[in-house]
Amino acid sequence: MQQEQVPPPLTASLGAARARVRLPWPVLLFVPALLIIVSLVIAFLVLLRFSFNHWDPVHTMVSSWTLANYVALFSNPVVGRAFVNTARISAIVTLACVVIGYPAAYGISRSRGRDVLIFLLVAPLMIDALVRAYGWFVMLGEHGIVNALLTGVHIWRGPRRLIYTEFAVELELIHELMPFMVLPVANVLDRTDPALREAAMNLRASPWRTFVHITLPLSLPGLVAGILLVFALSMSAFVAPLVLGGGNVLTMTMLIEQQMLTTLDWPLGSAQSIVLVLVVLVVLAVSRRQLRGTAVFGR
Amino acid sequence: MNPASRLWGNWLLAVYLIFFFLFLESPLVMILLTSMNKGFGVTFPPQGLSSQWYLRLWDEIRNIPGVKPDLVRATWTSAWLGVSAMGGSIVAGVLVAFGLHRYRFPGRTVVQQCFLLPILFPQIVTGVALALWFSAVHGVPVWARLVMAHLILTLPYVVITTTASLETLDQRLEDAAMNLGANPLQTFWHITLPGIRSGIISGAVFAWLISFANFTVTFFIYGSGVRPLPVWIYEVLQYLLDPSLAALSTGLVLLTLTVLLILNRVFALGRLMGQRR
């Protein structure tokens, strides 16, 4: 602010003398958006407050200040099972995304039709989650393509029931979250200097050695960002376990849904939501540096 | 590395990419095949072509007895909800993106990330928290609740696309306008806004699509009488696998892809996630 009081020297170029457009009362620019964000914050505070309330079967929710709900999260075996299930599903999904996604990211970053491929990669994300889930419903049915393929090549003897299993949920999540793994990796690979790879090859390093010692280490920040994003997003996934799990796959989100809509134990559901948010935000905060410039975090 | 093995490597990579994208697009393709399948439901390979499911969808659109009612109503609800959320988040998002881009102040990065927070906040928690808040505050109509929730969901996308446009805007144009005697408001209206038009339009389209397709948050907030399309589809999925749903889904997929294809010319999809051009 100080600097702008000083009149620019006449010899300065136009760029340096730039008088940027400054509207009067700049604070007003932030008001509408702040209202929107603040409403999320208020809702979150209500959730936090409810998580200290007491629940009883007759009066449903009784106002109080108790930590019983948080204690219940650690002592209740059902919650424990849900947490373990969620962690397992997220780990499997993340691992699969790395294994399947890394070569794809490598291929996309080397290909000439990159823009088209990135469109094909991101477009399924923008399609109605229910429509996507229905697509998997169709594929995983008893006469669906997955059963047809796997029995066709004699991996399975006969069709298996796949819908409403953990496998179905994992498959949907791998599909849904793949772009969040591939894009950060492809971004980083794009920006690495091809000369480094060529230098290694000129020094007669084998393709494998070049990959392990040059390409892989350089792409590590993107890979870490992808892993954290996919893990965090699969922890908070809702549609996949709801539609494709059909009540057979108990995750944290399914438990929250049950408590909110079926048993109406809002305090326990709130405490669980708080824990879920904390886990997800901690994962993302830890990785802020890796996420910067690769994810939605901006530059 | 010798040329032969490099060639082999490229071939291998290309074949891998083909399989990878087959996997990614397979649910969409299967929906299309199912909607044209002669047999009932979800069989592979398909048993022959038929338009019966599209005819049945037509029945549902006309709301004749014996079909799941209210398809058209749900679609309109979703479409208008999308328009409302889009309008609100365009105004709020463009202003805040401009403010963040032009004014430097302490804690600016943190503020910027706050506006992107709803993307990373688990959607189920957003939905549950809003539902609980609305349960404590009586008298807010369901429609207003849904718009509020969708504003939260769509705002970050407008901020992202507008910021991207602002970064490429040549600010000397604004300087020129000011030198010619325009006041800041005139300059903003006649120079800045048209200059970031592509960012605003893409933000609007993303906002509408995100709102139109949202299920998770909507599921916890919708009420009787106001039932958006994703909730309608969920209810159908609950009790029957009528392939007319595939016909409907095909329509929705084609609609989304068309919008995205047009949009992709203005604002490459990958940039939404930090891909630079």
Verbal overview:
The complex is a heterodimer of chains A (299) and B (277). Chain A has 299 residues and is an all-alpha fold. Chain A has one domain: MetI-like (MetI-like fold), CATH 1.10.3720.10. In chain A, 68% of the residues lie in helices and 2% in strands. Chain A is built from 14 helices and two strands; from the N terminus they run ααββαααααααααααα. Chain A has helices at residues 2-5, 27-50, 68-75, 77-110, 114-122, 129-140, 145-152, 166-191, 194-202, 207-235, 239-244, 252-261, 266-286, 288-291; strands at 54-56, 60-62. Chain A has a two-stranded antiparallel sheet with strand order 1-2. In chain A, helix 4 (77-110) packs across helix 10 (207-235) and helix 12 (252-261) packs antiparallel against helix 13 (266-286). Chain A is globular and about 75 Å long. Chain B is mainly α and 277 residues long. Chain B has a domain at 71-239: Orthogonal Bundle (MetI-like fold). Chain B is built from twelve helices and no strands.
